[in-house]
């Protein structure tokens, strides 16, 4: 599976990373790289939880 990560910068400088195909996967980070890594980690947790239930 490949999911697209969308990035947006807030006015305060924080970065938002979101994976639109997986509801609830939206995170903040200090840099795009950090936000992207957090989004990937959250996506894995969400998908694993869905498989368990």
Features:
53 residues; alpha+beta; three-stranded antiparallel sheet
What does this structure look like?
With 53 residues, the chain is an alpha+beta fold. It has one domain (6-52). Helices cover 40% and strands 23% of the residues. The protein contains 1 helix and 3 strands, in the order βββα. It has one helix at residues 32-52; strands spanning 6-9, 15-18, 26-29. A 3-stranded antiparallel sheet has the order 1-2-3. A hairpin with a 5-residue loop joins strand 1 (6-9) and strand 2. The longest helix has 21 residues, at 32-52. The chain is elongated. The relative contact order is 0.20.
Unreliable stretches covering 5 or more consecutive residues? none
The tally of helices reads 1
Total strands: 3
Mean pLDDT: 96
Shape: elongated
Concise overview:
By secondary structure, the protein is α+β, with helices and mostly antiparallel strands. Helices cover 40% and strands 23% of the residues.
Map the helices and strands:
Blueprint lengths: L5 E4 L5 E4 L7 E4 L2 H21 L1
Antiparallel strand pairs: 1-2, 2-3
């Amino acid at each position: 599976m490949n999911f697209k990560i969308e990035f947006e910068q807030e006015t305060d400088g924080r970065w938002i990373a979101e994976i639109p195909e997986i509801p609830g996967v939206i995170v903040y980070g200090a840099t795009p790289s950090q936000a992207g890594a957090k989004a990937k980690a959250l996506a894995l947790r969400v998908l694993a939880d869905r498989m368990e239930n």
